[in-house]
Specification:
The chain is built from 27 helices and nine strands. The protein is α+β, with helices and mostly antiparallel strands and 814 residues long. The chain folds into two domains: 435 residues, Multidrug efflux transporter AcrB transmembrane domain (Multidrug efflux transporter AcrB transmembrane fold, Up-down Bundle), CATH 1.20.1640.10; 318 residues, no CATH class. The chain starts with a helix and ends in an 18-residue tail after the last helix.
Length: 814
């Protein structure tokens, strides 16, 4: 039944079409001006749940010891070892150059050439402390002495120098600019320093968190090119849908304007862009074109019906909608009538589906993690823009444009391969195959549930890049020479000043290090305990038997005093705070799997409980633990969000359809999308991480639209004709066909990400394509079978629609 409310709205819109287009243009110009305020924010702080203990520990580590953007620069001689004057000179210059970069934490920038890297050895006075590489050795004997000194310092082997001496490292750390956080900007400055030292004698490679995120940032900056490609892909789908310029142009215009409005609104309210939301414009564009397909399909239906009846008296009532009589009307008048009538049919459904999607996306703004909130704002605002434009600009433009030509009408009427497939599906459903289809669907659901049990949560920033990428190659190269390019920290906190000088605490740190060093994936651990062992050995004439923690706190204090007198005040500031109340154990890892890092921490807990005094606490922090917290929070929030979105859709759909069963019919696809998404990940071993956890919620946000459009159209046709077969075929070949084209638009738009060369986007695109396929099959096949089997009253009985309607034919002049 057609809504008289929207018929009157359509009449007003046709009269004010030029004013509507002017208003849209002004709003677009206004919001376009605010897009320049958007910033690409790569700061992980905005992703991190601030209340998580790992994040709190990371913040404390940053306050005490600097940042956690661990970076490794490896200098690898082509021939021989590092103990060559030209190679050591390069290390010195790289050390000096890195220290001059803005944001660098000098105390955490270390190499053999750093002032704080000391050669601790025994002497006549007990302990001699000198810079390891104060000057470059001028003779072979001095070079051999340097080599022996490094080899005798376990703290530096596998961190600053490879065990074989064939590579040296400069380790550094940076604090991000909070106003303009950019990893790539810092990376380019590092490269400028490094590039000056490149020649045929050495290979210089960089790795670590900063390098990884800088590469990610560069991929994100390239995304606008792929958005353009997505635009073209969607354009092809639109042309396939309508085979006309107007049919292709209007949906794409809506999509483009919706993205501009959403981006401008974000700039207006100060919401930043981030790596998780950079591909949301493709979603908005695809959803916009999807809704446009629905309304344009209905427009063509109405226009063809009017054209067919152009010589019949019944046309008079329709022409009265635009103030015309049966004499002297034009095709343009028929086009405007078609605009008004299509609004009367589609606008209530579109508003229902749009509001459900908007509320669903905006419900994400209560999430703990800011990137999820940003996604909710971005997607919700985009869908709101889509809805507003679809019920204003598209009808206004369609009323202003010439009527479809005969060739365009014929192309629209000509049956396609898709039409024939949907017709066969309708026949199969009506012919009694629905129970079998339903049973087969339930078997697939059971298979998906088994896949869910195989799902694991993990995140690896390194694996966001393809195996053959420069990031992955350099990472493997550095890990083959050194302890690792990834780090986590154990923060040891005493209850009072000088707590760390307690030999029991230092010995506990040593025990924990020994345990960690035996674990797979751990390349090296360092702490103040290592320094005190070396001091103790030096005080006993470098006897290896005394490479152990001193026996008493007085000895520890004495050794540290002697060290500070021979060295510099900041020599230990990356290991312990000034009050000796808090110290850190750095763990170098050869992989950045959050699952591995968390398992390592859980394995360490019994060791911590066994050896550390009760008044001392030990927590973990750093880039990997913070990623664990982010991933844990994101995945937990996403699961909660999916449940939340399903419940909201169920409630709203039940309200709109005035039926509990109707709410189930709309919500079931969302549950199936979620199960299929998680189940496929489980079967294929794809981890639930920051990227893949976003896919299901995006698909769920648009999945409800499919069922709403189909349910309304089937109910309309069934109440009009009372014929099950005809209602099934008509609904599938109109709204059902539009659903397939919408899914093709979304899948086609995201498919361009497969060419980005960025594994994160490739996985994301594949999951979106899969979920679009699942949601389409679910709506067209599974739920249609359910409807045939159970024949719900809200569809087959007397409906009670949400919007005011007029069941009677339109009267003259109405």
């Amino acid at each position: 039944m057609i809504s008289s409310l929207f018929i009157r709205y359509g009449q007003l819109l046709v009269k004010l079409r030029w004013l509507v287009m002017l208003a849209v243009a002004l709003v677009t110009v206004f919001l376009l001006g605010h897009i320049a305020k958007l910033k690409l924010d790569m700061d992980p702080d905005m992703w991190a749940p601030q209340a998580h203990p790992y994040v709190k520990t990371t913040k404390q580590l940053e306050r005490l010891f600097g940042g956690t953007n661990f970076t490794v620069i490896g200098v690898i001689p082509v021939q021989g070892d590092i103990y060559q004057a030209p190679v050591l000179a390069k290390i010195q210059r790289i050390q000096s150059g890195i220290e001059k970069i803005k944001g660098v934490i000098k105390g955490n920038t270390i190499s053999l050439a750093a002032r704080k890297i000391k050669n601790i050895r025994g002497g006549e006075d007990g302990m001699v402390v000198r810079p390891m590489l104060d000057t470059i050795p001028g003779s072979p004997q001095q070079m051999e002495e340097l080599k022996a000194a490094v080899k005798a310092s376990p703290l530096y082997v596998n961190t600053l120098v490879s065990p074989q001496g064939d590579a040296a490292a400069v380790l550094t750390d940076f604090q991000m600019d909070k106003l303009n956080p950019s990893y790539d900007a810092i990376y380019q400055q590092i490269q400028a320093v490094v590039d000056r030292e490149r020649d045929s004698s050495v290979e210089i490679v960089s790795g670590g968190l900063l390098v990884n995120l800088a590469a990610t940032e560069r991929h994100v900056k390239q995304l606008p090119l792929f958005l353009g490609a997505a635009f073209l892909a969607i354009m092809l789908v639109q042309y396939f849908s309508f085979r006309s310029f107007q049919g292709m142009f209007l949906p794409l215009l809506t999509g483009l304007l919706s993205v501009i409005w959403a981006l401008g609104f974000m700039g207006l309210i100060g919401v930043h862009m981030d790596v998780m939301n950079t591909n949301t414009p493709i979603l908005i564009m695809a959803v916009a074109t999807g809704h446009a397909i629905q309304i344009l399909k209905r427009y063509y239906e109405e226009f063809q019906d009017l054209t067919r009846r152009r010589r019949e008296p019944s046309l008079a009532a329709d022409l009265a909608l635009v103030g015309k009589t049966i004499q002297g009307f034009s095709d343009k008048d028929l086009s405007r009538v078609a605009v008004i009538k299509s609004l009367g049919w589609i606008a209530p459904i579109m508003i229902t589906a749009g509001l459900i999607a908007i509320i669903t996306f905006y419900s994400l703004t209560i999430a703990e993690v800011s990137v999820v909130r940003h996604f909710g704002v971005f997607a919700g605002s985009g869908i709101a823009a889509v809805l507003l434009l679809e019920i204003t600009l598209i009808p206004a433009l369609r009323a202003a444009l010439p009527a479809p030509r005969m060739r365009e009408q014929n192309a629209e009427r000509r049956p396609s391969v898709l039409d024939r497939l949907l017709s066969k599906l309708a026949d199969s459903l009506v012919a009694g195959n629905s129970p079998r289809i339903l049973i087969g669907g339930l078997a697939l659901v059971a298979l998906a549930l088994v896949g869910v049990t195989r799902l694991h949560v993990d995140n690896s920033l390194n694996h966001d890049h393809l195996p053959g990428s420069e990031v992955r190659r350099n990472d493997a190269r550095l890990n083959s020479h050194f302890g690792g390019t990834n780090s986590m920290f154990f923060l040891v906190q005493g209850s009072k000043q000088d707590a760390i000088k307690n030999p029991k605490v230092l010995q506990a740190m040593s025990e924990l290090q020994q345990f960690l060093n035996r674990q797979p994936g751990v390349g090296k651990t360092t702490s103040l305990a290592d320094m005190t062992k070396k001091m103790n050995q030096a005080m006993h004439a470098d006897d290896p038997a005394y490479y152990r923690v001193p026996d008493t706190q007085e000895l520890v204090a004495q050794y540290l005093l002697l060290f500070s007198m021979s060295g510099e005040p900041q020599d230990l500031d990356n290991m312990v705070d000034g009050d000796y109340r808090q110290a850190v154990i750095q763990v170098l890892l050869k992989e950045d799997s959050t699952q591995h890092a968390e398992a390592l921490y859980n394995l360490s807990k019994p060791i911590i409980e066994k050896y550390f005094p009760a008044e001392v606490t030990v927590g973990i922090g750093g880039s990997l633990p913070e990623t664990i917290a982010i991933n844990e929070s994101l995945t937990r929030d996403k699961i909660q969000n999916m449940v939340q979105m399903t419940l909201i859709v169920f409630f709203l759909a039940s309200l709109v359809l005035r039926s509990f069963v109707g709410g189930l019919f709309v919500a079931i696809p969302l549950v199936l999308i979620m199960l299929a998404n998680l189940g496929l990940m489980g079967w294929f071993g794809i981890p639930l991480d920051m990227g893949t956890s976003t896919t299901a919620s995006m698909a769920m946000g648009v999945g409800a639209d499919y069922e709403i459009y189909l349910l309304f159209r089937f109910r309309e046709e069934y109440q009009r004709h009372g014929n099950l077969a005809l209602a099934t075929r008509t609904s599938l070949m109109t709204s059902g066909k539009a659903i397939v084209l919408v899914a093709l638009s979304i899948a086609g738009g995201y498919s361009v990400l497969l060419a980005t060369g960025f594994a994160f986007y490739i996985r994301f695109a594949l999951m979106v394509i899969v979920t679009m396929t699942v949601s389409t099959v679910c709506a067209l096949v599974f739920l249609r079978s359910m409807m045939m089997v159970f024949k719900p009253r809200f569809v087959f009985g007397q409906p009670r629609p949400l919007f005011p309607i007029d069941a009677a034919p339109l009267a003259e002049g109405e």
